[in-house]
Q: What sequence folds into this?
């Protein structure tokens, strides 16, 4: 079905004449005959716009989204409210449709946004240099590994088990290419085991990777943990949740060389996981090793202030095999969304939002801990997410909550076999006290019902039940 | 009154931080609705931040004005012709934005239980199937976030493939016309690039290929190729190339940035490629967003499949009268692992799948045909008159969806560099072609009109080039000092790199 | 709750100083004290953006919209697919937020859109002059009455009962102000009773009002009916459905002096009835009597082509009590939506859409007529809507269909007591053959069930059942 | 290179019809899916159209480029300051657009059974209640489509009120400062306007009012008043005015265009008004859309209530444990009837209700306070320097949310008409104030900054006026020939009216 094209039969005729061929098919004769497909594509016929809409809407209908279920799932992506002004600005053709700003004279809009974004992320992380964004969080962390190898000429990474499992796995994937070794350090009481970390870091270590709040929601003492890295000349790389940086001490003040993370909480919708963006900030020293685009301020021939892509000599299109990274197309529009969201929140709103999260999270943690069959997985300080253990199969409890219209949290079992009974619960400003209370009731009822199911049916043991008994006592 | 500058030029750039004023704000937040304990009771003081980050303090009306005004300092695809070679700046249908914004897509948490995200998984599966058919390869992973990420994935797959066979290989062949991401990805995946020369037809120089293969016997992990390549021509020797590489034990990697030339006409899988990445933000109409987001799914052959990233979207046949269901398969023991968080840039998948549904099979075929027609027509127009004289085509044959001109004679005869021509085009209201790439061609101009442009637009562009060259015959300084009408004029890029100022200083 | 303002306490202080008052309250002292409210407004406290969103979404949730129910309701507003490009363009600040283009030098965008819209509507109706839009359909028709009085100096209107009941009622409301008499002419076989119309028109008649397709969906023979108006020097005013003007003979070719109507089908969503727009086209003769804004082409001092508000001397802001109408703010953005939709459909798409409607409507009419307990209310030709009679209480049948997720049509009883058993069924390109078949099945089942309810429960008679028995036989 | 014109000026205006080319199209339509009978079998040939209307033939990418480019030829509120008096150009929150677009609102059919449109009816009822509280009058109809429609409604209500009492009255009093829609509405509702003079404070001249009442004894149907009026001042005599009119047997009509000055500070109902219209597109943030849509709900006193338009949204108490429900009441025997189709501009109601919820009671009070503060500040700034000398305030007292300056001294001393100043402001990037209204003031400039503007913006505007006046002292021609930088320069409006070309001629 013809769509989005303009060539009429007359146009085609005139164009073919100008080219000097009889048909468009002739132009394809440069493809050797055996390699031409010679049959139609086995794809459905084209559809009208209304039909495509109906088809896609019918698919969307079959997803339980956060408009339909009250969402307590986090694990790196959060159901924050994205203010309408973000969409209004990011949907403007002028931001939506251009390519990367290779021609700065006609790209000042996008370039200035990058510069503003870099300023904002630099403020958030407390590090002087920011790039204009990477794909997303975990691959940003893996890219930091590449930088660390370049900076230290070492090929050994020490990673806390508190780092997001997706980040750890991505780092491992990339490290095959980097020919680097990855060593993991465990958790104690919800936070990185400081002694084990100190032990693991050595003179061959290129970087130490921490995350705060870590995957279990616990705020790490980055400063203390980072000492081991400093001691051995390894880079300290800290993944963080940008939404907590209004209240938590910024990585830059904790000795981090690099701070990075998943940007989704800032101005980006959930989108089943993407597109969002990764942010990446570093100390001045690393500026020429940074991955990704960086906008810089300069002047035009008449002395007007302007912005350009700076330090392009780091990049693949100039430096090719010696580039600091291979990234080209990144996530500029998503970074714009973040910048608008941050401006909208503003200096004080951003902090207040952080405070709100901490307070509601504290309430939720207390409220849930009081539920029979729920206990805290750790008691370390948390900001906006916390982990509990359930005295009933997590999967079954989640199913029961889902029936009540609640997505109760993220089950920890797949990523942490040691916490097969663990559930991670996330709070955003959209989760009201009433919804938290409802979650507590739903968990209470679900756990009771699951226990009943086990008791009632005597020998019946749910699949997930076949695991180690829960530690501490419960009501 | 004489104009000394345009209204936009007269407006001094001010960042949003400079518009900040203490006490202003846009957002109102809900009440916590829970006990307002002091923060330090909840989190130890030493972990807390002393001062909030110095974000702007600004009202909502000021924000929208700031960014709206800023937006007008961009040139964009909906403003005018954007023949940026290798970038496939085709129309971005707003239908795709509409369906991506449906709450069932936009507010779906990526960790939602697959049983409660069946629509999303089915969509991903359908897109996989579509790309598989288009690429002529049976398996697809949607995970990579853009083309370069797809390249990295492909090279790591290649490593895994060899490793699984107990081999360690160290070299990756790539033509000298390859895109910068190709060698960069090669290095990131622990390989070394070996450049292969280009022949007089713009294709791979077969003798050089054979020589490089011989030189690096048993060391060649794979060959990365773009076909049609960055010169816009189809390499007729591809079948032979493929068998040479396969004989040498390496898979063939296809950089799909130029897929828009051949959709439904020729398939990488049929050409002998084992791994293909597809830039959904090029051929499949995802808007470029000023530098992303995109997505770079990969399609692979059977022998590469075991190593595909984790998780993989799978379709499970139904039983007991239930229809099929969709799931995320994590149990992939030979997988290279994850390349990123969650399942990929799903919002991009929605847009691209909507695009595929809109056009259908025939529509895709016609899109490529029209892209090739438009390119060849514009090439013919630029072979006339002054352009034909000063800007010859680098490889004189029919092109596919794009073509490369050389500004070398223009520079020699008129003193205009390709950059000058590009800058002068800005005054004529056009985005210039890609310049100085591929490196092989002196003073290169790489022109890709795409299928969604009307003939009138192509004519207007050819006329503008002609006129700029005519002007230059009289007065080359006109172009050398261009542009004149853009929001800012030529910028000092050297300063920005020598003494980089990459953030606003705040007091 | 402060929102959308920028004045900080410092700003206020400086501003008050400059004004020379001590507080803002002083500025309100010009309001005599007894008239100051002296208490807070009894309205809820302000809410955050996310909270307002939730509140409004919860209200929206309680409406059965056309995304949720398959909508066969028309009656003047139709569930057409509004292409996404319409929203993309109408949501641009540059179109969304300016006022009426009083300063043409900085309003060329809006003015040119008006000019294009006028051209399009003129093409559709076959009349040479169009304004830039009025509020909506029925009030446009009432405004035509005002024009007719001005043009003929007569004060008598003859109106077909086929004209939309809302239009007739609005005309009646306005006519009290116009001090004009309204005479209604009945229908015969679904169309205006030609003999009765000829009888009703006389030398005092200012205008004859017809609608085609009329409210019952029937295409009127406007040309033939209009002869009576011509004969007596009355204006012929024809209301029409713009979506049918790709296939039906345009009013301008049928002798109409004025063609007008509800513009919603063109590029405007249902919005529970508004905002949409009314269009208004007329013969050259009436140009200086037109209501509303009209853009005209002209030149600037340098000879550049440009557009301005033309013929402003008709309007209230210049002519005041002698104005041709009182309208000021109209529906410019909605007219833009229409223009974009029309351009998107294009010359041939617009006609094809009309053909599609006619064919699907013919199918639906045939399909429904075959259902037991359904018969056609008239057999006159129809374009996109048709009327049937049900052998069961209409309200109860509609409720049953609603339970199946179908809004089956518009019940005629309130507007046409003579058709208490009547149902008006509308078709758009969104209503597929499958949905039409489903409607037929739903009606079949509902009617059968209602008959069963009556039979089964003996004496039980549904409220709506207390009416005249249905005419012709049924299965 | 010297600029002769801006890029926008260089671009020749072309309509979409002129960009049409036979054979192009954007839309694809679904297959009918039913028998494709020839049309003439379904509808008699004589009722059919021979040739389709000559709509443009154009592709989708061309459409979006056309309208996007066109949009940039507009100045808008999100571009800059828009102090258009009487129009309340306040910020348009995008939240409101978002909630209006929810399918439950946007795709709700207006004839949906009220039992299946409870959310919409409740929203309308809540908005009615809110407006009732703000206006201080117990009953509200949301039906009128804009201010002028509300006026017509009010006058027809007045007629119905008198008729019901067996009276026929013929005159409507209105001050000479009234907005043009007021007298136009008066005539449309069969009345005759009697002008009342303005006193030296800018309010109603009480002696003249008394005289007009005496002259037209028993003929006065009502008085229409704007308060604060179009001079931006509050009429302190309103209580006395109200009692005079009430004594004469007429209701008092309040033109609510200026409600933004007094929300929560003073209520029309408390001032003695019987009928009030509210422009939701002014005080309640509905975007103006380049000339609509808006909505003009009316609030009325008990004695007017029986005549309100039909249908009316009502709340019915629940029974049997059911909550309240909402309905459309058509059974209103004394109603003036309908003013339009269906229930009014519902989409506008959603936006305005969202606005009211966002601000809350206190927020509305503060909005008005800030609007008045901003106006008085800008007035103070414009009382300084050259503006103070050449552009005196028409009535020298504190203003409410707007104020009126007179350009008479400027014209006399500098030779600049108000129009020239307005046009020169365009070059400075500002939308000019309302000019030549109210008629009472020579060379009037009516300035309404609204509450959503920052002090810096007001200062910049005042500075621009100062600078234009300074320029004019040297060279008055500068302003007289302005603007220079707009997409087109001064346009020939006379030609457009003398020989109107109101549509494109097509071949
Ligand atoms: C030939 C070629 N290969 C690879 C890429 C990299 O793709 P991406 O920008 O999606 O990473 C590009 C992008 O410009 C390209 O043109
Ligand atoms: C004082 C006054 N009254 C009435 C109106 C008419 O309102 P509308 O444009 O909504 O019909 C206006 C609009 O400008 C006005 O300023």
A:
């Amino acid at each position: 079905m013809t769509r989005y094209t303009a060539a009429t039969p007359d146009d085609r005729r005139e164009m073919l004449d100008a080219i000097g061929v009889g048909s468009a098919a002739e132009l394809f004769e440069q493809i050797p005959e055996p390699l031409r497909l010679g049959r139609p594509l086995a794809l459905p016929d084209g559809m009208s716009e209304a039909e495509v809409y109906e088809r896609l809407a019918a698919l969307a209908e079959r997803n339980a989204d956060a408009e339909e279920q009250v969402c307590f799932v986090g694990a790196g992506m959060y159901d924050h409210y994205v203010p309408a002004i973000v969409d209004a600005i990011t949907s403007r053709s002028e931001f939506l449709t251009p390519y990367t700003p290779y021609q700065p004279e006609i790209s000042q809009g996008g370039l200035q946004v990058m510069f503003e974004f870099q300023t904002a992320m630099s403020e958030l992380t407390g590090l002087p240099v920011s790039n204009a964004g990477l794909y997303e969080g975990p691959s940003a962390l893996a890219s930091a590994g590449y930088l660390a190898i370049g900076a230290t000429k070492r090929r050994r990474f020490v990673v806390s088990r508190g780092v997001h499992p997706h980040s750890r796995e991505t780092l491992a994937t990339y490290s095959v290419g980097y020919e680097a070794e990855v060593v993991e350090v465990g958790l104690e009481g919800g936070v990185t085991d400081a002694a084990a970390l100190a032990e693991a870091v050595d003179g061959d270590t290129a970087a130490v990777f921490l995350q705060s709040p870590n995957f279990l929601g616990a705020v790490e003492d980055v400063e203390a943990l980072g000492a081991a890295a400093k001691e051995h000349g390894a880079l300290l790389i800290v993944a963080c949740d940008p939404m907590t940086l209004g209240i938590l001490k910024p990585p830059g003040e904790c000795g981090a060389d690099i701070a990075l993370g998943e940007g989704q909480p800032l101005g980006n919708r959930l989108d089943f996981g993407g597109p969002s963006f990764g942010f990446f900030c570093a100390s001045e020293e690393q500026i020429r090793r940074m991955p990704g685009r960086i906008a810089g301020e300069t002047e035009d021939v008449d002395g007007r202030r302007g912005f350009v892509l700076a330090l392009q000599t780091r990049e693949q299109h100039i430096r090719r095999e010696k580039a600091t990274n291979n990234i080209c197309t990144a996530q500029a529009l998503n970074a714009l969304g973040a910048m608008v969201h941050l401006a909208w929140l503003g200096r004080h709103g951003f902090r207040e939002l952080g405070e709100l999260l901490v307070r509601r999270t504290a309430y939720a943690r207390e409220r849930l801990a009081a539920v029979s069959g729920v206990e805290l997985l750790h008691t370390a300080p948390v900001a906006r997410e916390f982990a509990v253990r359930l005295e009933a199969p997590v999967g079954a409890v989640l199913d029961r909550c889902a029936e009540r219209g609640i997505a109760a949290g993220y089950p920890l079992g797949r990523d942490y076999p040691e916490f097969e009974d663990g559930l991670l619960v996330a709070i955003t400003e959209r989760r009201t006290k009433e919804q938290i209370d409802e979650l507590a009731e739903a968990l209470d009822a679900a756990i009771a019902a699951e226990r009943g199911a086990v008791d009632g049916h005597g020998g019946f043991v749910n699949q997930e039940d076949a695991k180690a008994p829960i530690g501490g006592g419960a009501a | 009154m004489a104009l000394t500058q345009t209204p936009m030029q007269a407006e001094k750039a001010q960042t949003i931080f400079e518009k900040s004023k203490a006490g202003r704000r846009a957002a109102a937040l809900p009440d916590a609705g829970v006990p307002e304990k002091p923060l330090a009771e909840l989190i130890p003081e030493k972990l807390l931040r002393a001062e909030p980050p110095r974000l702007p303090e600004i009202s909502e009306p000021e924000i929208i004005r700031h960014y709206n005004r800023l937006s007008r300092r961009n040139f964009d695809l909906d403003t005018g012709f954007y023949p940026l070679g290798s970038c496939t700046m085709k129309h971005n249908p707003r239908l795709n934005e509409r369906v991506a914004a449906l709450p069932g897509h936009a507010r779906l948490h990526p960790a939602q239980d697959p049983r409660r995200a069946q629509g999303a998984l089915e969509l991903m599966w359908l897109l996989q199937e579509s790309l598989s058919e288009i690429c002529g390869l049976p398996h697809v992973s949607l995970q990579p976030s853009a083309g370069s990420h797809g390249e990295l994935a492909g090279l790591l797959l290649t490593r895994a493939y060899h490793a699984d066979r107990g081999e360690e290989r160290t070299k990756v062949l790539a033509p000298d016309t390859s895109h910068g991401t190709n060698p960069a990805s090669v290095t990131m995946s622990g390989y070394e690039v070996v450049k292969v020369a280009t022949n007089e037809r713009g294709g791979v120089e077969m003798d050089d290929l054979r020589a490089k293969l011989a030189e690096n016997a048993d060391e060649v992990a794979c060959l990365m190729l773009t076909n049609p390549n960055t010169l816009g021509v189809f390499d007729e020797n591809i079948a032979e190339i493929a068998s040479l590489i396969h004989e040498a034990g390496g898979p063939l990697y296809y950089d799909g940035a130029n897929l828009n030339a051949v959709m439904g006409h020729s398939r990488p899988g049929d050409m002998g490629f084992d791994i293909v990445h597809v830039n959904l933000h090029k051929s499949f109409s995802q808007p470029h967003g000023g530098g992303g987001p995109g997505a770079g799914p990969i399609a692979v052959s059977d022998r590469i499949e075991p190593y595909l990233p984790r998780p993989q979207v799978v379709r499970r046949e139904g039983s007991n009268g239930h229809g099929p269901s969709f799931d995320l398969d994590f149990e992939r023991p030979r997988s290279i692992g994850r390349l990123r968080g969650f399942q990929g840039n799903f919002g991009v998948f929605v847009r691209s799948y909507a695009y595929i549904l809109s056009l259908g099979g025939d529509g895709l075929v016609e899109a490529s045909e029209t892209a090739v027609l438009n390119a060849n027509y514009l090439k013919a127009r630029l072979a006339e008159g002054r352009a034909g004289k000063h800007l010859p085509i680098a490889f004189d044959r029919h092109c596919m969806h794009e073509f490369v001109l050389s500004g070398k004679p223009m520079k020699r005869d008129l003193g205009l560099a390709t950059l000058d021509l590009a800058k002068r085009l800005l005054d004529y209201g056009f985005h210039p072609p890609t310049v100085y790439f591929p490196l092989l061609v002196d003073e290169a101009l790489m022109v890709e009109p795409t299928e969604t442009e009307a003939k009138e637009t192509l004519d207007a562009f050819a006329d503008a080039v002609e006129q700029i060259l005519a002007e230059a015959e009289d007065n080359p300084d006109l172009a050398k000092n261009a542009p004149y009408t853009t929001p800012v004029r030529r910028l000092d890029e050297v300063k920005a790199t020598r003494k980089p100022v990459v953030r606003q200083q705040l007091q």
Summary: The pocket of pyridoxal-5'-phosphate (ligand 1) is lined by residues A 328-329; B 86-87, 146-148, 179, 181, 226, 230, 255, 257, 279, 294, 296 (CB under 6 Å). DSSP finds 18 helices and twelve strands in chain B. The longest strand of chain B covers residues 220-225.
